[in-house]
Design a protein that fits this description.
Elements (H helix, E strand, L loop, with lengths): L14 E5 L3 E7 L14 E7 L1 H11 L3 E5 L1 E3 L2 H12 L8 E3 L6 E6 L5 E6 L10 H12 L3 E5 L3 H14 L3 E5 L7 H10 L2 E5 H10 L9 H11 L4 E5 L5 E4 L5 E4 L12 H14 L4 H16 L11 H10 L5
Parallel strand pairs: 1-4, 1-9, 2-7, 5-6, 9-10, 10-11, 11-12
Antiparallel strand pairs: 2-3, 7-8, 12-13, 13-14
Helix pairs in contact: 1-8, 3-4, 4-5, 8-9, 9-10
Length: 330
């Protein structure tokens, strides 16, 4: 690991700025698949918090990074609770934006016994509106003083500003390229060209390709990386392959397909977001891409092996212990 950069926080901890959507999750664990039109009972119903960049920030903070989140909340009890939950877990919230007379984004999450989840989300479009000039200036200043930036695709206007600031500061600008509305695909392509590190889910990449009239890449990692590299701006690219791991290719020509450590999945909610937070945290620590991928795989594997939302996030010692116990990483 190289010496800390100028963006490091107190005690030489690496710093990460996450920008995107923040969501309150009402999570219900059901004993079997739902049957339409029939009253059913859940094993438990809990309130949790999420959103790609938001969960990534919580994961990064748990891994020892000074993480700060810029996201828009509604002026309501759910928004206040989400902000408090972030602060308890060490995530900076001074850059959060509050929209008056707007409800905080909320999702109903249904988790079945195999760990799979179904999500129904309601997000007011005003939570994704462009920042006003003062808000934009403040966020650009934050992005200019950190070791890495991570953005999701759910707030494109803010993400574009953050990636521009990362490029100006010559620090990693990571894009979590997940599925989004077809009407946002052109903006997402713009974000991919602006990011130095683009990590796409296989489904999201196929969506962009088919929208442009190109064939989907399916299960072919090399084809997926080639297609993503063509979309991106010449930086590092990676495609997440679910249980099969992650295919990645860096600008120096190094590449690989990294499988996650074997675990028993009990809850997959937020696992991809944890992966991105751990990956960006490793980049903020100046880890090479190959090491960052391995750390991210381990952090996500630990997340799916536990229930409990953010309370199930692993710390750096747990991640490194799992890596050390997996012979494929030696």
């Amino acid at each position: 690991m190289t010496a800390p950069g100028p963006g490091h926080g107190a005690g030489d901890r690496p710093t990460l700025l996450c920008v995107g959507i923040a969501v309150v999750d009402v999570v219900t664990h059901v004993p079997a698949a739902l049957v339409a039109g029939v009253k059913q009972f859940a094993d438990r119903i809990t309130t949790a918090y999420g959103g790609p960049a938001t969960t990534a920030a919580a994961a990064a903070a748990r891994l020892g990074v000074d993480a700060e989140l810029v996201a828009a909340l509604g002026d309501d009890d759910r928004g206040y609770a989400l902000r408090a939950a972030l602060e308890v877990r060490g995530v900076g919230t001074s850059g959060m934006v509050v929209r008056e007379q707007v409800s905080t984004a909320t999702s109903l999450v249904i988790v079945t016994p195999d760990g799979e989840r179904t999500i129904v989300n309601a997000t007011d479009r005003r939570l994704r509106a462009p920042l006003d000039p003062a808000e934009a200036e403040a966020m650009m200043a934050r992005a200019a003083g950190v070791d890495a930036v991570l953005v999701d695709v759910r707030w494109p206007a803010a993400a574009a500003l953050a990636l521009a600031a990362a490029a100006q500061a010559a620090v990693p600008g990571v894009l979590d390229l997940d599925r989004t509305d077809a009407g946002e695909h052109d903006r997402v392509r713009g974000l991919a060209r602006a990011a130095s590190h683009v990590v796409a889910s296989r489904d999201a990449l196929d969506d962009l390709l088919t929208d442009a009239g190109a064939p989907p890449v399916g299960d072919a990692p090399d084809a997926a990386l080639d297609a993503l590299a063509e979309l991106a701006g010449g930086g590092m690219v990676a495609v997440t392959l679910g249980a099969d791991g992650v295919a990645w290719r860096d600008v120096d020509g190094s590449a690989g397909v990294a499988a996650p450590p074997p675990v028993t999945a009990v809850e997959t909610l937020g696992a991809g977001d944890v992966w991105h937070g751990a990956f960006a945290a490793a980049l903020a620590r100046r880890e090479p891409v190959a090491h960052a991928v391995v750390h991210a795989n381990a952090a996500a594997a630990l997340r799916v092996s536990r229930t409990g939302g953010w309370d199930a996030l692993a710390d750096l010692a747990e991640v490194e212990a799992l890596i050390g116990a997996d012979p494929r990483t030696v």
